[in-house]
Amino acid sequence: MNRFEGKVIIVTGAGSGLGQAATLQIAKEGAKLVLVDLNQAGLDETKKKVQEVAPNAETLLVTANVATESEVENFVNQTVEKFGKIDGFFNNAGIEGKQNLTGDYGIEEFHKVISVNLNGVFYGMKYVLKVMKEQGYGSIVNTASVGGIRGVGNQSGYAASKHGVVGLTRNSAIEYGQYGISIKAIAPGAIMTPMVEGSLRQMGGDNWEEVGKEFVKPNPMRRFGKPEEVGYLVAFLLSNEADFINAAVIPIDGGQSYKY
């Protein structure tokens, strides 16, 4: 398929995990890509992989911290200057933060997680929506989490930030649908990404793989999800096929969030 032929898509957190997986799927389908990440090495790796699956894909790499408003405004401006428009935005960059009980959760750690996962998503929407409103069309997919639709023990900052992403998604969707813009969120569960591996290492140290096996036992599908499975979903949601999906928060978690 070439659902993104001639279309310009921004992906934040493109240097690894879900951002990289979605980038590769969208690249295969003809998109012009603006890849944003704090990690330049990760961006370089993603670009190399893009060249392998889509040798003719146009890419713009921007190193940026989504928690800094001016840097978000800059990558949006660079996109418009280079490509003249923004058709889709995978607003994905995020961090997990350290694990601890709410009463013991560090104040600085809490603010750090909120600044990336919630403020960063807001900044991205703020500046991309200005462009899309003027165009009269566009699609935004925000990365929430199953932690944004239910509690997650020992991760107060993460859960609070992702619940905020769900709220921003739904609120903005009802505001901007009239301008031809659809806004939705994905709610991944346990997907085997570097972030999830880091979480397992916090819980199990050198025995993190054994912890992982126990972690997925309650999942109806008894396994971790694959980043590319999320990439397929994101590509669909950014495509014109999903234009009438608006304000939705779509779990991709093997059914775990519905089990109890």
TrEMBL record:
From the Swiss-Prot or TrEMBL record, what is one GO molecular function term? oxidoreductase activity
Judging by the UniProt lineage, the source's domain of life is Bacteria
Listed InterPro entries:
NAD(P)-bd_dom_sf, SDR_fam
Keywords, ordered alphabetically: Oxidoreductase
Q: What is the E.C. number?
A: 1.1.1.-
Q: Name one GO biological process term.
A: bile acid metabolic process
Pfam families under this entry? adh_short_C2
The family note in this entry says: Belongs to the short-chain dehydrogenases/reductases (SDR) family.
PANTHER family recorded: DEHYDROGENASES, SHORT CHAIN, ESTRADIOL 17-BETA-DEHYDROGENASE 8-RELATED
Name of protein? Levodione reductase
- Supply the source organism for this entry: Solibacillus isronensis B3W22
